[in-house]
Amino acid sequence: xxxxxxxxxxxxxxxxxxxxxxxxxxxxxxxxxxxxxxxxxxxxxxxxxxxxxxxxxxxxxxxxxxxxxxxxxxxxxxxxxxxxxxxxxxxxxxxxxxxxxxxxxxxxxxxxxxxxxxxxxxxxxxxxxxxxxxxxxxxxxxxxxxxxxxxxxxxxxxxxxxxxxxxxxxxxxxxxxxxxxxxxxxxxxxxxxxxxxxxxxxxxxxxxxxxxxxxxxxxxxxxxxxxxxxxxxxxxxxxxxxxxxxxxxxxxxxxxxxxxxxxxxxxxxxxxxxx
Length: 275
What we know:
Layout: H1 19-34, H2 39-56, H3 60-84, H4 88-93, E1 98-103, E2 106-109, H5 110-135, H6 139-148, H7 153-182, H8 193-199, H9 201-224, H10 243-266
Antiparallel strand pairs: 1-2
Helix pairs in contact: 1-5, 1-6, 1-10, 2-5, 3-5, 6-7, 7-9
């Protein structure tokens, strides 16, 4: 299982898009997903995201760890929503269809299940595009693209460093974890959860120190090279806008327009199949 979440070089239509295009596409796509609870729109966006991922040539093993981790967070979120608001769907859709009563104020309701499903789909509609943005975008090329559309090169370079830093943190975490386990600190599932949580501090503290040390090294190197002295800079990696870039942005804009159109048609953010 690959736990690395960093740029993977491939020759695909997605990889050949400009970094700015992928960034703009991700922002518009996220806005379209977050502004609606219409199941038809969200399912369509998720299906298109899966198609985009297939076109990119990336493999399931490249995202399995990140996707499963995100799904775990989503499931925890859904459980919390049901625990604190077991009849939120009733308030939203205005009807109440009970499947089975559990205990106290908790019942399995069609309205609540539909609301939780839409809540999950909001995340699933964005996750494939977000993963594509990370895995199919060269950090240096992305920084150059941001600078080209008017963003300060200081901001673009900071973003590029952050994207490059993700695999470094993952590698340091793995190395420190292996070193601490070799010293007898048990982090396996055989130990109690509370003990594992306490022992994890033996990894996080060295990880923070190593991260601060790396930040100091990078900042000193940039300062010695006069970073930020001039208003402009040149880039080794830069990709011009092409027809495919404009087409990709147009697809995102169309999806946002469809999302807004369904909101107007429904008279709100929610699609109500119970009326």
